[in-house]
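Just scan this pair:

***
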Amino acid sequence: MKKRTSIIAAGVFLLIAGMLAWSLKSAHDNERNNSDGDGGSIESIADGEASENQTEKEAYELKIIEMDEQEKEETLKKLFSFMESCKNIYESTIKEGNTDEDALHGMIEVGAKKGLSVACGNRDYNLSNYEQVDAALRDALSGKEAEAEIYQVNTVGVFRYYHLAFNKKNELFVTSASAVFTEEMKPALSQLEKILAYQWEYTPKGWLIWEKALSRNQEMDMHIFCRILPLDEQCRRITQEYVVPVSYFCNNLFLTDWDMSSLEKLEFNDLFEFLYAEEYGKRLENEAYGDGIPKQEFESVIGQYFDISVDDIEQYGRYDSAKGSYPFHAIGIRNRVQQLQPSFPEVVRCTENEDGTVTAYVEAVSIEEGMDCYYAHEVTLGRREDGRYVYVGNRVDRERSYCIPAYRARREFEGAE
């Protein structure tokens, strides 16, 4: 009897213990599932990270849209038709696989007369018939459905066509094709695709920027830039003749604040080779200047771009009277700092000053960053009687610059090469 009673008591105890354990487990599970704390449950965190990683992975992938045969045929017909209209100019001017600038601009004008919007791949000529593209983009910005077409030519002989279609969801679908002429002067397709762009923007400055897919790095950049709104002729001339040739690499003409009363801030010896290339249309042969730049040659080049006396050139260029030359160090891997370089500069507007000088407002573009103003500065130029300009000052716009390229004079590196 006692044994039976003990057995029953033990059974009751086990039953109660089991029920208590089940109750505690249920309460713990509910607490995990219903947690609204800062971190959430382990499962929700894992699910969120997995979802985030999947979203990022998808963003890196190009979203290809299937094209039907009719759309392919219409795309090729438009591109090849434009190429045929440019054939005579292209064939008569092609040299070693490159087309000169005048021919390039001539082909843009051919397209313009046909009502096409044609862009210059070298970015030194305004988009023809830009108004129709601008109108479409403004419709797209207001949430309307819109379409636009852009053709492009460049000096390497590649012809491109873009069809842009915007829907009410603010999505951009881009159909693009590129082609070249064969040796028999027949259009030959190089690439054809249709994508849903990852993102797009039409900036107040007039740049249409779209990213085909999320860019992983500079080597796998997916940005496409196309200037829609025009720049005036003075802006383009100063850009091409006085800003682009010098730019920001290994010299500080545009990287520091200076005027004619503070010429000591400029490194004329580092600047020389860039002005030489612009003046003579060829690069400096570094091997020929191992002992420095001959006095007359150095002063002649600098004098073409600055209203400066020989005495000042000697002082700021550190003239070596014993050698009869100016010090020069060719650019090497050990005598320069790493620079985050803009893709290209452009003068966006010019102001005529009361003293007869011109101030050019420069905004350098970074394609990799997707920015139409990566670095900003103001260059002041003086007019010469022969119509050329000379540099008389520069001011860095630190408020509007995303990044100011780094610089250090080559002479400051010990054992500079």
In short: Residues 133 and 154 are 20 Å apart (CA to CA). The longest helix spans residues 2-33.
